[in-house]
Write a structure and sequence with these properties.
By secondary structure, the chain is of the alpha+beta class. The chain is built from 7 helices and 21 strands.
Protein backbone atom coordinates (compact mmCIF):
# COMPACT_ATOMS: atom_id res chain seq x y z
CA UNK A 1 0.00 0.00 0.00
CA UNK A 2 2.76 2.42 0.88
CA UNK A 3 4.52 1.59 -2.35
CA UNK A 4 1.44 2.49 -4.47
CA UNK A 5 1.02 5.78 -2.60
CA UNK A 6 4.65 6.77 -3.24
CA UNK A 7 4.27 5.93 -6.94
CA UNK A 8 1.16 8.11 -7.31
CA UNK A 9 2.94 11.07 -5.67
CA UNK A 10 5.88 10.72 -8.08
CA UNK A 11 3.57 10.65 -11.12
CA UNK A 12 1.75 13.78 -9.94
CA UNK A 13 5.02 15.67 -9.48
CA UNK A 14 6.12 14.66 -12.98
CA UNK A 15 2.91 16.03 -14.50
CA UNK A 16 3.28 19.38 -12.67
CA UNK A 17 6.84 19.79 -13.94
CA UNK A 18 5.67 19.12 -17.49
CA UNK A 19 2.95 21.76 -17.28
CA UNK A 20 5.49 24.31 -15.92
CA UNK A 21 7.78 23.63 -18.85
CA UNK A 22 4.95 24.30 -21.30
CA UNK A 23 4.28 27.70 -19.64
CA UNK A 24 7.97 28.79 -19.99
CA UNK A 25 7.90 28.09 -23.73
CA UNK A 26 4.98 30.52 -24.33
CA UNK A 27 6.77 33.41 -22.50
CA UNK A 28 10.56 33.03 -22.62
CA UNK A 29 12.40 34.67 -19.74
CA UNK A 30 14.46 37.84 -20.38
CA UNK A 31 18.10 37.74 -19.46
CA UNK A 32 18.96 39.86 -16.42
CA UNK A 33 20.83 43.11 -17.06
CA UNK A 34 24.40 43.07 -15.90
CA UNK A 35 25.06 44.85 -12.66
CA UNK A 36 26.34 48.47 -13.00
CA UNK A 37 24.92 49.01 -16.52
CA UNK A 38 23.09 52.32 -17.41
CA UNK A 39 19.91 52.89 -19.43
CA UNK A 40 20.15 53.56 -23.14
CA UNK A 41 20.61 57.19 -24.37
CA UNK A 42 17.11 57.20 -25.79
CA UNK A 43 15.60 56.34 -22.44
CA UNK A 44 17.69 59.03 -20.73
CA UNK A 45 16.42 61.69 -23.14
CA UNK A 46 12.86 60.73 -22.37
CA UNK A 47 13.34 60.74 -18.61
CA UNK A 48 15.43 63.94 -18.34
CA UNK A 49 12.97 66.77 -17.45
CA UNK A 50 15.24 69.41 -19.04
CA UNK A 51 15.69 67.62 -22.37
CA UNK A 52 13.36 67.30 -25.32
CA UNK A 53 13.52 65.57 -28.70
CA UNK A 54 11.71 67.74 -31.22
CA UNK A 55 9.23 65.98 -33.46
CA UNK A 56 8.95 66.80 -37.15
CA UNK A 57 6.24 69.45 -36.66
CA UNK A 58 8.07 71.26 -33.84
CA UNK A 59 11.38 71.18 -35.70
CA UNK A 60 9.83 73.35 -38.43
CA UNK A 61 9.69 76.25 -35.96
CA UNK A 62 13.21 75.82 -34.64
CA UNK A 63 16.19 77.87 -35.79
CA UNK A 64 19.64 77.68 -34.24
CA UNK A 65 22.85 79.68 -34.28
CA UNK A 66 26.32 79.44 -32.80
CA UNK A 67 26.69 81.63 -29.73
CA UNK A 68 29.28 84.34 -30.46
CA UNK A 69 30.58 87.39 -28.61
CA UNK A 70 30.30 90.98 -29.82
CA UNK A 71 30.60 94.51 -28.45
CA UNK A 72 27.78 95.36 -26.08
CA UNK A 73 26.90 98.52 -24.18
CA UNK A 74 24.67 98.04 -21.20
CA UNK A 75 21.99 100.69 -20.79
CA UNK A 76 21.68 102.16 -17.30
CA UNK A 77 18.12 103.01 -16.33
CA UNK A 78 18.19 105.95 -13.92
CA UNK A 79 15.10 107.41 -12.18
CA UNK A 80 14.32 110.95 -13.34
CA UNK A 81 11.53 113.53 -13.28
CA UNK A 82 10.32 116.40 -15.42
CA UNK A 83 10.60 119.94 -14.08
CA UNK A 84 10.17 123.47 -15.36
CA UNK A 85 13.07 125.17 -17.08
CA UNK A 86 14.25 127.64 -14.43
CA UNK A 87 15.40 130.03 -17.16
CA UNK A 88 11.80 130.23 -18.38
CA UNK A 89 10.09 130.91 -15.04
CA UNK A 90 8.91 134.22 -13.57
CA UNK A 91 7.93 134.64 -9.94
CA UNK A 92 5.65 137.65 -10.00
CA UNK A 93 4.75 139.88 -7.07
CA UNK A 94 3.23 143.27 -6.35
CA UNK A 95 5.21 146.48 -6.73
CA UNK A 96 3.36 148.07 -3.82
CA UNK A 97 1.85 147.10 -0.50
CA UNK A 98 -1.86 146.71 -1.02
CA UNK A 99 -5.01 144.69 -0.51
CA UNK A 100 -6.20 142.35 -3.29
CA UNK A 101 -9.59 143.44 -4.63
CA UNK A 102 -9.80 141.24 -7.75
CA UNK A 103 -8.12 138.04 -8.94
CA UNK A 104 -8.02 137.34 -12.66
CA UNK A 105 -5.35 134.65 -12.90
CA UNK A 106 -5.90 131.01 -11.89
CA UNK A 107 -3.56 128.04 -11.83
CA UNK A 108 -3.32 126.35 -15.22
CA UNK A 109 -4.34 129.45 -17.16
CA UNK A 110 -2.26 130.46 -20.17
CA UNK A 111 -1.36 134.14 -20.08
CA UNK A 112 0.42 136.58 -22.36
CA UNK A 113 3.12 139.04 -21.44
CA UNK A 114 1.60 142.13 -19.82
CA UNK A 115 -1.72 140.44 -18.99
CA UNK A 116 -3.33 141.50 -15.69
CA UNK A 117 -3.31 138.78 -13.03
CA UNK A 118 -4.69 140.69 -10.02
CA UNK A 119 -5.90 144.15 -8.95
CA UNK A 120 -4.98 145.78 -5.62
CA UNK A 121 -5.96 148.88 -3.67
CA UNK A 122 -2.84 150.60 -2.34
CA UNK A 123 -2.61 153.54 0.04
CA UNK A 124 1.12 153.59 -0.62
CA UNK A 125 0.51 154.18 -4.31
CA UNK A 126 -2.02 156.95 -3.73
CA UNK A 127 0.38 158.74 -1.36
CA UNK A 128 3.16 158.49 -3.95
CA UNK A 129 0.86 159.91 -6.63
CA UNK A 130 -0.11 162.76 -4.32
CA UNK A 131 3.56 163.50 -3.72
CA UNK A 132 4.17 163.51 -7.47
CA UNK A 133 1.34 165.96 -8.09
CA UNK A 134 2.69 168.27 -5.41
CA UNK A 135 6.15 168.11 -6.95
CA UNK A 136 4.65 168.71 -10.39
CA UNK A 137 2.78 171.81 -9.14
CA UNK A 138 5.89 173.14 -7.38
CA UNK A 139 7.86 172.70 -10.58
CA UNK A 140 5.28 174.60 -12.60
CA UNK A 141 5.36 177.48 -10.09
CA UNK A 142 9.15 177.50 -10.07
CA UNK A 143 9.23 177.61 -13.88
CA UNK A 144 6.90 180.60 -14.03
CA UNK A 145 8.88 182.35 -11.26
CA UNK A 146 12.15 181.77 -13.07
CA UNK A 147 10.74 183.04 -16.37
CA UNK A 148 9.39 186.21 -14.71
CA UNK A 149 12.69 186.78 -12.90
CA UNK A 150 14.53 186.51 -16.17
CA UNK A 151 12.25 189.13 -17.77
CA UNK A 152 12.69 191.46 -14.80
CA UNK A 153 16.45 191.00 -14.87
CA UNK A 154 16.54 191.88 -18.55
CA UNK A 155 14.47 194.97 -17.77
CA UNK A 156 16.99 195.83 -15.08
CA UNK A 157 14.33 195.64 -12.37
CA UNK A 158 16.03 192.97 -10.24
CA UNK A 159 19.62 192.00 -9.77
CA UNK A 160 21.50 188.87 -10.84
CA UNK A 161 21.32 187.39 -7.34
CA UNK A 162 17.52 187.29 -7.43
CA UNK A 163 17.54 185.61 -10.83
CA UNK A 164 19.97 182.98 -9.61
CA UNK A 165 17.78 182.29 -6.58
CA UNK A 166 14.74 181.70 -8.79
CA UNK A 167 16.69 179.40 -11.10
CA UNK A 168 18.01 177.44 -8.12
CA UNK A 169 14.46 176.99 -6.84
CA UNK A 170 13.48 175.69 -10.29
CA UNK A 171 16.33 173.17 -10.33
CA UNK A 172 15.30 171.93 -6.90
CA UNK A 173 11.65 171.60 -7.97
CA UNK A 174 12.68 169.65 -11.08
CA UNK A 175 14.82 167.31 -8.97
CA UNK A 176 11.93 166.69 -6.55
CA UNK A 177 9.56 165.99 -9.42
CA UNK A 178 12.08 163.59 -11.02
CA UNK A 179 12.39 161.72 -7.72
CA UNK A 180 8.59 161.52 -7.39
CA UNK A 181 8.38 160.29 -10.99
CA UNK A 182 10.95 157.57 -10.35
CA UNK A 183 9.07 156.52 -7.23
CA UNK A 184 5.93 155.96 -9.29
CA UNK A 185 7.91 153.87 -11.77
CA UNK A 186 9.25 151.75 -8.91
CA UNK A 187 5.68 151.27 -7.68
CA UNK A 188 4.71 149.86 -11.06
CA UNK A 189 3.20 152.80 -12.94
CA UNK A 190 3.99 153.03 -16.64
CA UNK A 191 5.03 156.23 -18.42
CA UNK A 192 1.64 156.31 -20.05
CA UNK A 193 -0.11 156.12 -16.67
CA UNK A 194 2.14 158.86 -15.25
CA UNK A 195 1.41 161.14 -18.21
CA UNK A 196 -2.30 160.54 -17.66
CA UNK A 197 -1.85 161.44 -13.99
CA UNK A 198 -0.22 164.74 -14.98
CA UNK A 199 -3.16 165.64 -17.22
CA UNK A 200 -6.03 164.43 -15.04
CA UNK A 201 -4.47 165.48 -11.73
CA UNK A 202 -6.53 162.68 -10.10
CA UNK A 203 -5.09 160.18 -7.66
CA UNK A 204 -5.84 156.50 -8.47
CA UNK A 205 -5.06 154.01 -5.69
CA UNK A 206 -5.56 150.93 -7.90
CA UNK A 207 -2.49 148.88 -8.77
CA UNK A 208 -2.28 145.82 -11.01
CA UNK A 209 -0.08 142.74 -10.99
CA UNK A 210 0.86 141.81 -14.56
CA UNK A 211 2.65 138.83 -16.08
CA UNK A 212 6.19 139.58 -17.13
CA UNK A 213 6.37 136.60 -19.54
CA UNK A 214 4.04 134.54 -21.70
CA UNK A 215 3.35 131.12 -20.23
CA UNK A 216 1.17 129.12 -17.86
CA UNK A 217 0.32 129.99 -14.27
CA UNK A 218 1.67 127.09 -12.23
CA UNK A 219 1.32 128.60 -8.77
CA UNK A 220 -0.85 131.22 -7.01
CA UNK A 221 -0.22 132.29 -3.42
CA UNK A 222 -2.90 134.92 -2.82
CA UNK A 223 -6.61 135.16 -2.06
CA UNK A 224 -9.11 138.04 -2.40
CA UNK A 225 -8.81 140.53 0.45
CA UNK A 226 -5.27 139.49 1.32
CA UNK A 227 -2.64 142.18 1.90
CA UNK A 228 0.49 141.57 -0.12
CA UNK A 229 3.97 143.02 0.16
CA UNK A 230 6.49 143.71 -2.61
CA UNK A 231 8.62 140.83 -1.33
CA UNK A 232 5.79 138.28 -1.75
CA UNK A 233 5.80 135.92 -4.74
CA UNK A 234 2.12 136.05 -5.63
CA UNK A 235 2.12 134.17 -8.95
CA UNK A 236 4.54 131.82 -10.68
CA UNK A 237 4.34 131.74 -14.48
CA UNK A 238 6.37 129.25 -16.53
CA UNK A 239 6.95 128.73 -20.23
CA UNK A 240 6.25 124.99 -20.62
CA UNK A 241 7.24 124.75 -24.29
CA UNK A 242 10.59 123.35 -23.10
CA UNK A 243 11.19 121.36 -19.92
CA UNK A 244 14.05 119.90 -17.97
CA UNK A 245 14.41 116.16 -17.31
CA UNK A 246 16.61 115.75 -14.26
CA UNK A 247 18.08 112.42 -13.14
CA UNK A 248 20.02 111.41 -10.06
CA UNK A 249 23.01 109.39 -11.27
CA UNK A 250 24.54 106.99 -8.71
CA UNK A 251 27.97 108.11 -7.64
CA UNK A 252 29.64 105.01 -9.12
CA UNK A 253 28.19 105.64 -12.59
CA UNK A 254 28.59 109.43 -12.59
CA UNK A 255 31.70 109.28 -14.77
CA UNK A 256 29.60 107.81 -17.60
CA UNK A 257 27.66 111.08 -17.99
CA UNK A 258 29.21 114.13 -19.62
CA UNK A 259 27.79 117.36 -21.05
CA UNK A 260 26.89 116.82 -24.70
CA UNK A 261 26.21 113.06 -24.41
CA UNK A 262 23.10 111.75 -26.15
CA UNK A 263 20.60 110.15 -23.77
CA UNK A 264 17.09 108.78 -24.10
CA UNK A 265 14.16 109.51 -21.83
CA UNK A 266 11.06 107.37 -21.26
CA UNK A 267 7.98 108.69 -19.47
CA UNK A 268 5.55 105.99 -18.26
CA UNK A 269 2.57 108.38 -18.37
CA UNK A 270 3.16 108.77 -22.13
CA UNK A 271 3.45 105.06 -22.84
CA UNK A 272 7.26 105.08 -22.45
CA UNK A 273 7.62 107.01 -25.68
CA UNK A 274 11.33 107.36 -26.46
CA UNK A 275 12.54 110.98 -26.32
CA UNK A 276 16.09 111.77 -27.37
CA UNK A 277 18.05 114.60 -25.78
CA UNK A 278 21.53 115.77 -24.84
CA UNK A 279 23.01 116.27 -21.41
CA UNK A 280 23.22 120.03 -20.80
CA UNK A 281 24.30 119.98 -17.16
CA UNK A 282 26.12 117.66 -14.77
CA UNK A 283 26.46 118.70 -11.15
CA UNK A 284 30.01 119.27 -9.89
CA UNK A 285 29.09 118.03 -6.43
CA UNK A 286 27.65 114.83 -4.93
CA UNK A 287 24.51 114.90 -2.84
CA UNK A 288 25.78 113.62 0.54
CA UNK A 289 22.38 112.17 1.48
CA UNK A 290 21.61 110.19 -1.69
CA UNK A 291 25.18 109.79 -2.99
CA UNK A 292 24.03 110.85 -6.44
CA UNK A 293 24.99 113.44 -9.04
CA UNK A 294 22.34 115.48 -10.82
CA UNK A 295 22.29 115.31 -14.62
CA UNK A 296 19.92 117.32 -16.77
CA UNK A 297 18.64 117.27 -20.32
CA UNK A 298 16.22 119.60 -22.12
CA UNK A 299 13.27 118.33 -24.15
CA UNK A 300 10.84 120.13 -26.41
CA UNK A 301 7.22 120.14 -25.25
CA UNK A 302 5.22 121.89 -27.97
CA UNK A 303 1.93 120.09 -27.25
CA UNK A 304 2.35 120.36 -23.45
CA UNK A 305 1.99 116.56 -23.13
CA UNK A 306 4.86 116.43 -20.64
CA UNK A 307 3.90 117.99 -17.33
CA UNK A 308 6.23 119.15 -14.56
CA UNK A 309 6.83 116.52 -11.84
CA UNK A 310 6.03 113.60 -14.19
CA UNK A 311 8.16 110.56 -13.38
CA UNK A 312 10.60 109.44 -16.06
CA UNK A 313 13.53 107.13 -16.72
CA UNK A 314 16.79 108.30 -18.25
CA UNK A 315 18.66 105.71 -20.33
CA UNK A 316 22.44 106.05 -20.32
CA UNK A 317 24.88 103.79 -22.19
CA UNK A 318 27.63 102.07 -20.18
CA UNK A 319 31.17 101.34 -21.39
CA UNK A 320 31.49 98.83 -24.28
CA UNK A 321 32.06 95.19 -23.24
CA UNK A 322 32.49 91.87 -25.06
CA UNK A 323 29.46 89.72 -24.34
CA UNK A 324 27.60 86.80 -25.89
CA UNK A 325 24.25 88.15 -27.07
CA UNK A 326 20.90 86.41 -27.41
CA UNK A 327 17.78 87.56 -29.24
CA UNK A 328 14.84 88.03 -26.88
CA UNK A 329 12.90 85.29 -28.71
CA UNK A 330 15.48 82.75 -27.53
CA UNK A 331 14.74 83.33 -23.85
CA UNK A 332 12.30 81.20 -21.83
CA UNK A 333 11.08 82.67 -18.53
CA UNK A 334 10.07 80.17 -15.85
CA UNK A 335 9.94 80.47 -12.07
CA UNK A 336 11.58 83.92 -12.09
CA UNK A 337 14.56 82.49 -13.99
CA UNK A 338 15.76 82.81 -17.58
CA UNK A 339 16.53 79.73 -19.71
CA UNK A 340 17.66 78.93 -23.23
CA UNK A 341 17.72 75.70 -25.25
CA UNK A 342 21.14 74.34 -26.15
CA UNK A 343 21.31 72.03 -29.17
CA UNK A 344 22.74 68.54 -28.58
CA UNK A 345 22.33 67.29 -32.16
CA UNK A 346 19.82 64.87 -33.67
CA UNK A 347 16.93 67.24 -32.85
CA UNK A 348 17.74 67.00 -29.14
CA UNK A 349 17.75 70.16 -26.99
CA UNK A 350 18.45 70.83 -23.34
CA UNK A 351 16.96 73.62 -21.25
CA UNK A 352 19.87 75.61 -19.75
CA UNK A 353 19.70 78.28 -17.04
CA UNK A 354 21.29 81.69 -17.82
CA UNK A 355 21.62 85.03 -16.09
CA UNK A 356 20.95 87.84 -18.59
CA UNK A 357 21.38 91.59 -18.68
CA UNK A 358 18.68 94.08 -19.74
CA UNK A 359 17.43 94.19 -23.32
CA UNK A 360 19.08 96.55 -25.81
CA UNK A 361 17.88 96.70 -29.42
CA UNK A 362 16.17 93.32 -29.14
CA UNK A 363 19.24 91.55 -27.72
CA UNK A 364 20.14 90.45 -24.19
CA UNK A 365 23.69 89.78 -23.00
CA UNK A 366 24.64 86.58 -21.17
CA UNK A 367 26.22 87.58 -17.88
CA UNK A 368 26.37 84.02 -16.51
CA UNK A 369 25.73 80.86 -18.49
CA UNK A 370 27.15 78.69 -21.28
CA UNK A 371 30.29 79.96 -23.06
CA UNK A 372 30.45 81.19 -26.62
CA UNK A 373 30.77 78.53 -29.31
CA UNK A 374 27.80 76.32 -28.44
CA UNK A 375 24.74 76.08 -30.64
CA UNK A 376 21.57 77.55 -29.17
CA UNK A 377 17.97 77.90 -30.29
CA UNK A 378 17.25 81.43 -31.51
CA UNK A 379 13.67 80.86 -32.72
CA UNK A 380 11.05 78.31 -31.71
CA UNK A 381 12.06 78.07 -28.05
CA UNK A 382 8.44 78.54 -27.02
CA UNK A 383 7.31 75.52 -29.08
CA UNK A 384 10.17 73.39 -27.77
CA UNK A 385 9.30 74.25 -24.20
CA UNK A 386 5.64 73.35 -24.76
CA UNK A 387 6.65 69.94 -26.13
CA UNK A 388 9.01 69.41 -23.16
CA UNK A 389 6.17 70.12 -20.74
CA UNK A 390 3.85 67.71 -22.57
CA UNK A 391 6.45 64.94 -22.21
CA UNK A 392 6.50 65.51 -18.46
CA UNK A 393 2.77 64.83 -18.08
Amino acid sequence: MNRRKSLSTAVLATLLLALGACGDKSQPAKPAAPSGSSPSPQAKAVNDPLSVVADVETQKWVKTAVLATSEYREVLRVPAAASVDETRVARIGSSVTGRVTELKGVVGQNVTRGETLAVLNSTELSNAQLGFLKAFSAKMLAERAAQRAKQLFEADVIGAAELQRRETELSQAEAEMSAAHDQLVVLGMSEKAIAKLEQARTVNSQSVIISSIAGTIIERNVSPGQVVQPADAVFTVADLSRLWIQAEIPEKQSELVKVGDVVHVQIPALGNKDIEGRIVFVSSTVNPETRTVTARTEVANPDRAIRPAMLATMLIQDRPQQRALLPVNAVIREGNRDYIFASKGDNRYTLTAVFLGPETNGMRPILEGPPAGITVVTEGAFHLNNERKLNLQ
